[in-house]
Amino acid sequence: MLPFANMSGDPEQEYFVDGMVEEIITALSRIRWLFVIARNSAFTYKGKAVDVKQVAQELGVRYVLEGSVRKAGNRVRITGQLIDTTTGAHIWADRFDGALDDIFDLQDQVASNVAGAIEPKLRQSEIERASRKPAANLTAYDLYLRALAQSYRFTEEGLAEAVVLARQALAIDPSYAPAAALVGRCRWVQRVQGWGALSAADVAEACRLARQALEAERDDAETICQAAWTLFFLAGEWAMAAALDRALALNPNAAHAWLARGTIRAHSNQPAAAIEAIERARRLSPFDPYTFHFDFVIAVAHLYARRFEQVIEWADRALHEQPRLAPAMQFKVIAFAHLGRLDAARAELSRVLAIDPKLTIARVREYAHFAAPEIVELVVTGLRLAGLPEGDGA
C-alpha cells in the first residue's frame, strides 16, 4: 500500500493522512489471507511520483492501494484506488467525504470502509487469476478459489462442483482450513435449497471439517465465521456465537462475520440486534456476492417479530438479487399465510416446490432444529396453511 498523497501541504492534514494510512494498514492486516506491506516499507514512497509496477516488483506484491486527500475548510475528501499491478487495471475506486471535527473517528470510518469494500474485490480478482491458471499448476489455494467461484453461482451444479474442488484442495493440503470450512457452507446451502439428497455421512463430514477448520485456523475471521455458520445450521450448536465474537475481535471489518452474527441473532428471536448486525455488514461490503443473504436475514428478523408485511418486502429484495433463493420464497409463503392471503401463499409455495419438490413439514422441522420451538411452530403453521404436505407418513 502506498501512502495517500496530501494535496495541500497542510501540516495538520499531513498528520491526519499519516494516521489514516496507518489505520488502513492495520485494518487490512486483519484480513489474514492478505499479505500487507508494513508501514515503514510503504512510507518509503511517501511524497514520490512512483510507477506502481516498479513498486510491485520492489515490494513483492500483486496489488497496490493508493489515493489522495484534499481539504476545503473543515472538510476533507479522500479518494482511493486499488490497482492490479500485473495488468494495470483498477479493480476498485471510491471516495469518502468527512469533517475534521473528530479526526480519530474519521480515520476509523475511512479505514473500516476501505478494508470492507476492497476485500471482496480482491477476492474476486484472485478468483479470476486462479481461473486462468493451467490445471496442472493449481495449488490448494487456487482450487479453493475455484471452489468459491462455483459456490457464488448459487446453482445445484455449482454447489456440487464447489464441494469437489474444495475436497481436491484438501487432498493437496489436508490442513487448509478455508477449504474445509467451505465444504460445510456448501452443504448447508444444499440442504436449505433442497439441492441433492444429503446423507448422514455428508452432514457428519461437513461438521467434522468445520470443527477441523476452527481448530486449525485461529486468526482468519472469514474461515471462523464460515465454520461457525455450518455448525449452527447443521448441528444446532448455539455456542458458535462465541466463535463469531472471536472472529469479530480479530477483524471488526469482516462483513461475513457480521452477516453470520445477524443470522444467529435473527434465529434466536433478537430481531433488532439481527438487523443492526446486517446493516453493519452491508455498510462494510455494499457489493458483496452475498448481498441477497443480507436482505433475507432481515426478512427472517421481521418474521420472528411477526411483522409479516416487512417479511414480504425484504424477501422480495433478496429474490430480486437471487431468484433461486428458496428460503426467501418459503418466508413469503409463511408471511402471506399469516396475513390470511392464502391464494398468494399457495402461488408462492408452487415456486418453492418447483425448486425443492420433496419439501415437507417433516423436513422443515428436521432442518430447523437450530430455531426456538415457538419459532418452528410459527414457520410450520404458515406452511401448513398454504398446503405444504406433512410428509413422513403423517
Structure description:
- The chain has 394 residues and is α+β, with helices and mostly antiparallel strands.
- The chain is built from 18 helices and 4 strands.
- The chain folds into 3 domains: 5-118, 3-Layer(aba) Sandwich (Rossmann fold); 133-252, Serine Threonine Protein Phosphatase 5, Tetratricopeptide repeat; 254-394, Serine Threonine Protein Phosphatase 5, Tetratricopeptide repeat (Alpha Horseshoe), CATH 1.25.40.10.
- It has helices at 11-29, 39-42, 52-59, 103-131, 140-153, 156-172, 177-193, 200-216, 221-235, 240-250, 255-267, 271-284, 291-304, 308-321, 326-338, 342-355, 361-367, 373-386, and strands at residues 5-6, 63-72, 75-84, 89-99.
- Strands 1-2-3-4 form a 4-stranded mixed sheet.
- Strand 3 (75-84) and strand 4 form a beta hairpin.
- The longest helix has 29 residues, at 103-131.
- The N and C termini lie far apart (62 Å).
List keywords for this structure.
4-stranded mixed beta sheet; 18 helices; 394 residues; Rossmann fold; Serine Threonine Protein Phosphatase 5, Tetratricopeptide repeat
Main β sheet profile: 4 strands, mixed
Q: Count the helices. How many?
A: 18
State the domain count: 3
Rg estimate, integer Å: 23 Å
Large-scale geometry: globular
Compose a concise summary of this entry.
By secondary structure, the chain is of the alpha+beta class. The protein contains 18 helices and four strands. The protein has three domains: 5-118, Rossmann fold (3-Layer(aba) Sandwich), CATH 3.40.50; 133-252, Alpha Horseshoe (Serine Threonine Protein Phosphatase 5, Tetratricopeptide repeat), CATH 1.25.40.10; 254-394, Serine Threonine Protein Phosphatase 5, Tetratricopeptide repeat.
